[in-house]
Amino acid sequence: MPGQLILYTPLNTLKPVAPDVWIVDGPQIEFGYMGVHLPFPTRMTIIRLSDGGLFIHSPTELVSSLRREIDALGPVRHLIAPNTIHYWWVPDWKAAYPTAKVHGVANLAKKAKRPIALDAVLGNMPPFEWAADIDQVLIEGAVMDEADFFHRASRTLILTDLIENFEPDRIRNRFLRWLVRAAGAADPDGSAPYDMRASFIFHRKALLASVERMIGWNPERVILAHGRWYARDGAAELRRAFRWVLK
Fold first, then answer.
1. Pairing mode, strands 36-48 and 54-57
2. Could you tell me where the DSSP H helices lie in 97-241?
3. φ, ψ (nearest 5 deg) of residue 5
4. What is the per-residue pLDDT across 45-77, written as a single tens digit (0 to 9) for each?
5. What is the dihedral of CA 165, 64, 29, 197, to 10 degrees?
6. How many domains does the chain have?
């Protein structure tokens, strides 16, 4: 469904969020959801670690102009595939930056629809490479595991699909607008879509502990992969979006 979204232009360029934190809004992709191929906007997050290396979360398409901007920030050290959906462009980045280390969830290589080799598996605690700068939590579900990250210095939490916050006025197609609202993933009350919530029915206790841990970090902002992200009141937005877990 090309052209169904009004994207977060300009695309494929660095956008400052906080000191040493940037986002890049990428191209539209299509993803099968509830039996329908839906258009999704893409977004990655870049953190410059205290050692100067770059932590690239959920890489978007690597175009030449973006690569020049990235190279000006510092060396690319870590490529993060935070769940089994957000990995597609990681092999392209690995080819461009062969010394970078690829980190992904445990079952990614088996589920991925293109070959991807992991150098390290993401767990519930940060590895030594970024432990001085970033906390992390691994949320495990029946369908999908997701690693989420908290940059302490900027109080920035990075989620991927556990909250989706599509803005209805950016969706041109009426049916798609209805579907996003029906799924529980529409701004201003974005959250995990209902089918994803159902996948945690047997993991609810662990999910609750992880959500409480993220709220305890008291993030100021929460960056999402899809839709409007939260530039302020991050902890309050978490309590709202995860009320289905916290109740």
1. antiparallel
2. 108-111, 174-182, 194-198, 204-216, 234-241
3. -115, 145
4. 999 999 999 999 999 999 999 999 999 999 999
5. -40
6. 1
Would you state the pLDDT for residue 36? 62
- Residue 228 pLDDT exceeds 60: yes
Q: Following CA atoms 25, 41, 59, 105 in sequence, which dihedral angle do they give, to the nearest 10 degrees?
A: 140
Residue 66 lies in a domain: yes
153, 159, 164, 168: CA torsion to nearest 10 = 30
Q: Position 190: which residue type? A: G
Tell me whether residue 10 is in a domain.
no
Q: Answer yes or no: is 19 within a domain.
A: yes
Contact present, 58 and 40 (Cβ < 8 Å):
no
Is residue 8 in a domain? no
Q: Residue with structure tokens 């990681």?
A: 90
Which residues, listed in sequence order, are joined to residue 139 by a DSSP beta bridge?
Answer: 146
Reference 234, options 210, 207, 216, 247; nearest CA is: 216
How far apart CA 68 and CA 73 sit, in angstroms, is 9
Q: What is the pTM (predicted TM-score) of this model?
A: 0.95
Contact 61, 68 (CB under 8 A): no
Residue ranges making up the domain that contains 55: 15-246
Nearest of 150, 178, 167 to residue 234 by alpha carbon = 150
CATH number at residue 53: 3.60.15.10
Cα angle 222, 223, 225 (rounded to 5 degrees) comes to 140
List, for residues 73-104, the tens digit of each pLDDT value.
999 999 999 999 999 999 999 999 999 999 99
